[in-house]
Amino acid sequence: MKSLPEKDPGSPDRRSPARYLLWLLRGQWRSAAGGAALGVLWMLSQALMPAAIGRAIDEGVTAKDEGALLAWAGVLLALGTVQAVTGVTRHRLAVFNWLSAAYRTVQVVTRQATRLGGTLPKRLSAGEVVSVGISDVAHIGDVLDIVARGTGAVVAIVAVAGILLATSPPLGLIVLVGVPVILAVAAPLLRPYREREQAHRELVGELNTHATDLVAGLRVLRGIGGERLFAGRYRAESRRVRDAGTAAAWAESRLSGAEVLLPGLLIAVVTWAGARLAADGQISVGQLVAFYGYAVFLIAPLKTLGEAAGKVTKGLVAAGRVVRMLEIDPELPAAGTARPAAPAELIDIASGLVVRPGRVTAVAAADPRDAQAIADRLGRYADGEVSLGGVPLHTVADVRTRILVAVNEDRLFTGPLAESLAPPGAGMAAGMADGRAADTGSPGRASLEAALRAANAEDIVASSGLDAHVAEAGREFSGGQQQRLRLARALAADPEILVLVEPTSAVDAHTEARIADRLAAARAGRTTVVCTTSPLMLDRAAHVAFVQDGLVVAEGTHRDLLETESRYAATVTRGETTTRA
């Protein structure tokens, strides 16, 4: 068999869930066509068995012709052999199709996740990504798996109807009319099943996200006594998922019941009509046995059609989630070539913010979303009219190197703490291989120590050591400790322009005051923008810009703005807005 996965999965069709599934089908059309052909032979070999049995009864048993009986027994043996061989081969191809579709989906999803980078957690929850990677790929694989048996079922039903119609037009008409009626009656059951399955999948994704957050913050929750509170919330959300799953199961059970009941009614009608015809002498005993065999056989292809409807429904829901992820575009690329001289003035034209080089500028926004939007534009994570040194930011080369935006959604990396915090190229890992700290005289170590002091994170390193192993996302640290370590990492990088978004929101007042006092010295000669409404941070800033409704409406020092701008005072002191005299 062909090795999996493919090196290049190709460019998926993300216009709709159905088009995505068709793209998968086209990409493996050879194996899908082979599986469908084998599925047809597999089903037809079973469909012809009742005819062979009927002929054996009429020509061998009733006519007492031993040779004819042996001949038809040989035909049955040949049909059984064909059924066995095609069944095994069809199953192998079906498994290959399932794996190929699933792996291909995993490849395009993983490639998209890598392409999105930091955009992914902003647009999709962790639980939804987990659901796509675990359950949705399985449902998509099921769609490609059912193609072979579904095709065989359709051909077998048509073949049986043709045989019945040729032998007895009334029986053939019953099958030809009955099958579309069954499909028409079962069709209305598909829509509620699809809707409830989709609702259930979305709730499962949300619950997975909350579970991930709970596990990541379990130490913190225990420390503040919030374990029971969040466990209660998780329990309530679990009940919602259970109720949604029950509703989906009810819809699926009605569909499964219809898969048994409706074909059963058709079989009963065919058997009753065949018995009447045999009693009237219009068909032989062998034909009656054959008709009964056809009726029993029809259960399998009709049930396969119902199974196909269910799997395609689930596959469309799963493909819809994959398509939504593939439709996300990464944050704006930094592909410019201009290189304005440093230090340079940074201007956000949309808000009117002017960031002078070499000083700490604070941005206090009445709505925190406005501050975040400004930070995104300054770092070119969102489109906007921003200039650096008089040059449009989208034309500037190495924007990510020159401008660093640090937000609280950033994560600590797994591995030695020194490697997670060290600036690129500082060589902090050189002395860590044997478990000993790096040379204290190295430039990388000195810059990191200065950054740790400015972020007031020295106590964290003193208790754990720079060679301590950081677990996933730094979950062994509290929220405040993680925030201080992230700030130290940003300061150690020493970018030309550093944009900090609420860098002290998770620390106590005493720690915040020390960070505020040390930040200006740590960033001396560099440009720093701090988006915050903390009075301690604002008081230490060289310049403060107050933003309301997305625009800078007042500027000055923190104390001047407190006296002259009532809206600013209300924002930073959490008081009520008053009108200036």
What can you see in these coordinates?
It is found in: Cell membrane. Pfam families: ABC_membrane, ABC_tran. Keywords: ATP-binding, Membrane, Nucleotide-binding, Transmembrane, Transmembrane helix. It is a single chain. The protein is of the alpha/beta class and 581 residues long. The chain has 2 domains: 17-326, ABC transporter transmembrane region fold, CATH 1.20.1560; 346-572, P-loop containing nucleotide triphosphate hydrolases (Rossmann fold), CATH 3.40.50. It is 65% helix and 8% strand. It contains 22 helices and 12 strands. Strands 6-9-10-3-11-12 form a 6-stranded mixed beta sheet, sandwiched between helices. A 4-stranded antiparallel beta sheet has the order 2-1-4-5, with helices on one face. Strands 7-8 form a two-stranded antiparallel ribbon. The protein starts with 16 loop residues before the first helix and ends in a 9-residue tail after the last helix. 39% of the residues are buried. The model is unreliable at 427-441 and 576-581 (pLDDT under 50).
Keywords:
12 strands, about 575 residues, single chain, ABC1_TM_dom, about 65% helix, six-stranded mixed sheet, ABC transporter transmembrane region fold, Rossmann fold
Structure summary:
This protein has 581 residues and is of the alpha/beta class.
How are the SSEs ordered, and which strands pair?
Elements: H1 17-27, H2 29-47, H3 49-62, H4 66-116, H5 119-123, H6 126-167, H7 169-186, H8 190-216, H9 218-224, H10 227-279, H11 285-297, H12 299-326, E1 346-348, E2 353-355, E3 360-365, H13 368-378, E4 386-388, E5 391-392, H14 399-402, E6 403-406, E7 415-416, H15 417-421, H16 443-454, H17 458-464, E8 469-470, H18 479-493, E9 497-501, H19 509-522, E10 527-531, H20 535-540, E11 543-548, E12 551-556, H21 558-564, H22 566-572
Parallel strand pairs: 3-10, 3-11, 6-9, 9-10
Antiparallel strand pairs: 1-2, 1-4, 4-5, 7-8, 11-12
Domain ABC transporter: 323-574
Subcellular location: Cell membrane
GO molecular function: ABC-type oligopeptide transporter activity; ATP binding; ATP hydrolysis activity
